[in-house]
Structure prediction request, 293 residues.
Amino acid sequence: MMPPFEIPGTITAQAVKDILRACGVDLVGIARADSVLLSHPPRPPRDLMPTSKSVVVMALAHQLGAVYAPDIMLWTRSKIQTSRLLDEAADLLSRILERKGFLSLAISADKPVEILKRDPRTGRKYRVPKVVGFLSLRHAAVSCGMGEIGRNNLLLTPEFGPHQRLCAVVTEAPLEPDPPRRHSLCSDCGRCIEACPAGALSPSGHDVDRCFMYWTYGFKALPPAAPSQWPSFIRMLLRHMKWRDFLVETGQTLMTDVDNCIECMRACPVGDRWERIRPDRLPPQRTRGMPGP
Ligand code: B12
Prediction:
């Protein structure tokens, strides 16, 4: 991709921000590679590039019409395009930085992710597979003051609330970091907890297994943990099979992506820029094949 601007002579934090803004990115922050906040399991930038000095985090606002569309598939399509724009910007920045002599690695807004079937420490099989990014983009964004992690477990920014997608570049370029900032965006209004169809959110946290099962398959139930739970699990599968075609869905997933839920994001009222156009109350979004979510 040819840059739509002149490549700066010296790479500074401002030059990096200007490049990304020219690519259409809405928010940019820079964190020091050795002090990025870590999540669980920890995925420090220096594991990806031992000589890295900075992590450039970028955010692109979602198309709100897609967030509030009646069918989740319309959102998924729009999300793919948002990821694509971010990935192109990250790729371009990485290439510019490398031409200036700094090893750089773009971390995609989308896949790949590590999929863990067993606990790496004990070898015990997880009830639900765990999925983890090579770098936690939400934590990287918090590290450079972009926002905070809300009750819905998403990055909230003052500008867009939860409605942005994230991407990053890990680089050897020594860029001036943006300091972490204290925000008070999440008022604990409870709308995300109420909206979550899987019961994954509660005042005490986020149940990643329930979220994963619903987001991936549209199933409210976790896989059976005891033989007595199999009959109700099978009844639920049969109910889904009556409405859905898993084979065709798999084909569609391979072509595009899978999303069965963004309710925690849709319900969130944070974000100044959207105040005027955000609907106040919303009927739940239709998910694949089922008559209702
Ligand atoms: C894997 C993943 C998922 C998984 C798991 C979610 C999760 N919390 O980990 C699933 C598929 C369920 C998922 C769902 C969603 N995701 Co997602 N997801 C990611 C991804 C690729 C990696 C996140 C990660 O590394 N998580 C692991 C740690 C960091 O998660 P954690 O919540 O801090 O902590 C949990 C784990 O520690 C877990 N846990 C406990 N023990 C163990 C043990 C092991 C071994 C593991 C792996 C985990 C684990 O429990 C903790 C509490 O939930 C990121 C992109 C990225 N590279 O960062 C996008 C990302 C976080 N997702 C995003 C979005 C938007 C969503 C959805 C709305 C779905 C959608 N349709 O887009 C939902 C919302 C879920 C929610 N409210 O948290 C956006 C968030 C943007 C924002 N504004 O914050 C991101 C940043 C993608 C992007 N490019 O913008 N996601």
